[in-house]
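Re: the 197-residue chain
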Amino acid sequence: MIPVVGHLIRDYAPADEASWLRCRVLSFLATAYFDDVDRAKPAIPAPGLELVAADAAGGVVGILDVLVEGDSATIDTVAVHPDHQRLGIARDLLAEARARLSALGVTTLDAWTRDDPGTLDWYRAMGFAESDHYLHVFAHAYTDPAEPPRAVAQPHPDLRPVALFLHADLRHERAMRARFARVHVCRRFSTALTHQP
């Protein structure tokens, strides 16, 4: 554990999960990862790192998960609660991770992120350089009603579906549940409104 002014850098503990999830969701909300929500903390297999920055009350205000494979490592998640940003927490988490990764013999640390200017600036300021790129493409009916049908009905050789959000008629519920692990019945609720003179 490394005490730093205003926060303590330490290993993640299972008791941190709810606070970890809140920190991640709130920090991602104003970024291109706003819809990347988990209901449970993803496991990071050994020898990977799961670091948190905790405030004086023990709440998680920063997180850094790193996957390690041989002499290479990849940042899986780095996030700082919005109320604690710009205090050096991410920098402190990264410094601790670099020290631990060096001790493991890791020679390369990389990260993948989307095109948020502040995030890109942070990585550059921390000594990272851009190398590879690919696209995350989202087809959403609220953006353009023709996008989802275009993405599915007309396969493109350079698009690999990773996740789809689809609607189906309720009469197909049994078939959908047999084919897919996550199926929800979307329900409409209404109430009558009385006219106020």
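The mean pLDDT is 87.
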